[in-house]
């Protein structure tokens, strides 16, 4: 069963790795998600993928918050 799921996952990992993209927050989220997924029923790959998506979203949200001035600031 692991070979059936492992080969497509490995191919997907190589395909994703070759696509240039900003990975801000993805690595940290993948590590945390992988660990959480491992302890939540041996779903480390699913946890890492979800953690990457959430980490990237949170990093982008934080970046947008720091770039836009708040309405209380005067010029």
Low-confidence stretches: none
End-to-end separation: 62 Å
Helix/strand class? mainly alpha
Number of helices, counting only DSSP H or I runs of 4 residues or more: 3
Apparent shape: elongated
The largest pleated sheet is described as: none
Helix content: over 70%
* Percent of residues in beta strands: under 5%
User: Compute the gyration radius: what is it?
Assistant: 17 Å
Mean of residue pLDDT?
76
Q: Could you spell the SSE succession in H and E letters?
A: HHH
Keywords:
single chain, 75 residues, mainly alpha, elongated
Could you explain how this protein is built, in words?
The protein has 75 residues and is mostly helical. It has a domain at 22-69. 73% of the residues lie in helices and 0% in strands. It has helices at 2-18, 26-39, 44-67. α2 runs antiparallel to α3. The model has no long low-confidence stretch (mean pLDDT 76).
Write the layout of secondary structure elements.
Blueprint: H1 2-18, H2 26-39, H3 44-67
Helix pairs in contact: 2-3
Structure in a nutshell:
The protein is built from three helices and no strands. It has 75 residues and is mainly alpha-helical.
């Amino acid at each position: 069963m692991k070979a059936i799921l492992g080969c497509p996952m490995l191919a997907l990992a190589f395909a994703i790795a070759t696509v240039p993209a900003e990975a801000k927050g993805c690595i940290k989220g993948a590590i945390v998600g992988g660990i959480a997924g491992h302890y939540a029923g041996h779903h480390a790959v699913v946890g890492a993928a979800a953690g990457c998506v959430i980490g990237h979203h949170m990093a982008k949200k934080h970046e947008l918050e720091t770039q836009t001035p708040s309405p209380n600031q005067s010029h």
